[in-house]
């Protein structure tokens, strides 16, 4: 997985650049929407397990180790996203939650640049691409 240097400011700039942010989120949403009906159902989210696992950690939920915990985590992540509780996550719900998550991460990163391993879900990767050429440095590839 690539390793990069990123700080909270880079993440924040990405979220605040509405056009870039919405475009990246739409792409991510479409990737998760495996049946292409324009909403994320539980099974769509379930298929994106690594992403959910990462989000669960980002949301300070448990890091799942057992099948029961994995089920629980899926439910909790899904409920968190489905704010109107209609059983599916639409693009607006998705964007709103992702914005909160990324801003929480930005707060966590603070002003001190941090070396982060870019996760497979690629949340921070979007922010990195956005900041590339400005103040983001890509370090050597991790083994
Ligand atoms: Ca769907
Ligand atoms: Ca909903």
TrEMBL record:
Signal peptide: none annotated. PROSITE patterns: EF_HAND_1, EF_HAND_2. It comes from the Eukaryota. One of its GO terms (molecular function) is calcium ion binding. SUPFAM superfamilies: EF-hand. Residues 20-55, 69-104 form the EF-hand domain. Keywords: Calcium. This is EF-hand domain-containing protein.
């Amino acid at each position: 997985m690539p390793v990069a240097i990123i700080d909270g400011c880079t993440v924040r700039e990405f979220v605040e650049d509405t056009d870039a942010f919405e475009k990246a989120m739409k792409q991510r949403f479409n990737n998760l929407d495996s049946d292409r009906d324009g909403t994320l159902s539980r099974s769509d989210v379930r298929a994106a397990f690594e992403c959910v696992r990462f989000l669960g950690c980002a949301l300070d939920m448990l890091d799942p180790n057992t099948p029961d915990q994995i089920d629980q985590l899926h439910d909790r992540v899904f409920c968190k996203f489905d704010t109107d509780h209609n059983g599916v996550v639409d693009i607006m719900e998705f964007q709103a939650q992702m914005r909160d998550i990324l801003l929480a991460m930005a707060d966590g990163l603070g002003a001190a640049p941090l070396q982060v391993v870019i996760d497979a879900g690629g949340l921070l990767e979007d922010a990195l691409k956005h900041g590339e050429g400005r103040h983001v440095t890509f370090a050597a590839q991790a083994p």
